Amino acid sequence: EVQLVESGGGLVQAGGSLRLSCAASGFTGDEYNIGWFRQAPGKEREGVACISSTDGRTYYAASVKGRFTISSDNAKNTVYLEMNSLKPEDTAVYYCAADRNLLWLIGGSKETVDYWGQGTQVTVSS
User: Fold this and answer.
1) Nearest CA to 86 among 125, 50, 58?
2) What is the 3-state secondary structure (H, E, C) of the chain?
């Protein structure tokens, strides 16, 4: 079965950087697209970035565009989220997600996405 394991979260000062990793297993090739979501306390889980498994195109939420970069390493079956210029409002649990339909990673939710990792906490202090 598809499994996703996030790592790389932690506490960082505002303006700092973190790199999250999503190790994926249970599928090969371009079967699943991978994305990152985040959920802050009391808020809905929202899409942050995703990457197409077929052509590598990337998509970003307006709130992170220009600061975050999603990338993939197919040999390692791992997707990364490089987060720069972090702000306190970026504080959230970050989840890796997989779906056969890229649409759900762009505008999906907890209820519509096929697979989720367990999440990794990112805390940005001011």
Assistant:
1) 125
2) CCEEEEECCEEEECCCCEEEEEEEECCCCCCCEEEEEEECCCCCCEEEEEECCCCCCEEECCCCECCEEEEEECCCCEEEEEECCCCHHHCEEEEEEEECCHHHHHHCCCCCCCEECCCEEEEEEC
Per-residue pLDDT tens digits for 24-55: 999 877 889 999 999 999 999 999 999 999 99
Q: Name the average pLDDT for the chain.
A: 94
Q: What is the pLDDT of residues 51-105, one digit of tens each?
A: 999 999 999 999 999 999 999 998 889 999 999 999 999 999 999 999 999 988 8
